[in-house]
Amino acid sequence: MVPLIDTTVDGHVHTRLCKHAVGEMEEYVEQAVRRGLTTVCFLEHLETDIAYQPPCWLDDDEFAYYFEEGLRLKERYRGVVAVRLGVEMGCNPAAIDAIRHRLKRYPIERIGLSCHFHQHGLSHLNLLSRRPQSLDRLAAIGADAVISTYFATLIKAVASLDCDVLCHLDAVLRHLPGITFNNEHRGQIAQLLDAMQGKDIALEINTSGFDYRGSAFPAPWIISAALERGIRLEAGSDAHHPSEVGRYFDQLPHYLEPLCR
């Protein structure tokens, strides 16, 4: 029987290069070896035309280093653990063509789709940040409206951009207390899953959620809806420290098994 999810592959790790994680690329690879993983995939942040400070993504020079060092690690650890080089592509709906242009410039092996920012006037607010500068303003705009825009952005991104996996689908406003999805949001999630099914985009089971809320991203009911559509599940730790590579992967088979009934 084919397993529901491959827990020997961590498809989502970051490094110090994104400016909000710590550790060198090789430290993450070494941890993957210690964990007994077969594959570790870096998914460094690629954002385009986002007006937000401080930046929490890679610039062109950092991407040049990223791919150079990644190729070195591929060779050094060949036969020990597979090293893959990807990006976590943030969708800015006002910059679709520019995103496509940037993706063509790099030897990207895996594209994770996400949406981290909400446009507010001439600037952007960080949807996943604890910083009051974003969180307070997003709350003032109204959680329901912000969440609706978030899902609409992901729906547009799936239709407009190529990607392999959708990351932390329901992590929007994860630091704002009392967040719930209304009927409109649930309809948008269904539309999003249908679009993913049509383009064979995998759903990430992001185990950072166990630390944030005691369950993976996305919620169990979303995972069940994805499985009903035959959408593939892929594991990602969203590691921001080398010790987090493969975190909670040992729990995933037991966690997911009831959701596929």
Automatic annotation (TrEMBL):
SUPFAM superfamilies: PHP domain-like. GO terms for biological process: L-histidine biosynthetic process. It catalyses: L-histidinol phosphate + H2O = L-histidinol + phosphate. Keywords: Amino-acid biosynthesis, Histidine biosynthesis, Hydrolase. It comes from the Bacteria. Pathway: Amino-acid biosynthesis; L-histidine biosynthesis; L-histidine from 5-phospho-alpha-D-ribose 1-diphosphate: step 8/9. One of its GO terms (molecular function) is histidinol-phosphatase activity. InterPro entries: Histidinol_P_phosphatase_HisJ (IPR010140), PHP_dom (IPR004013), Pol/histidinol_Pase-like (IPR016195). Its EC number is 3.1.3.15. GO terms for cellular component: cytoplasm. Belongs to the PHP hydrolase family. HisK subfamily. NCBIfam families: hisJ_fam (TIGR01856). This is Histidinol-phosphatase. The lineage of its organism: Bacteria, Pseudomonadati, Thermodesulfobacteriota, Desulfobulbia, Desulfobulbales.
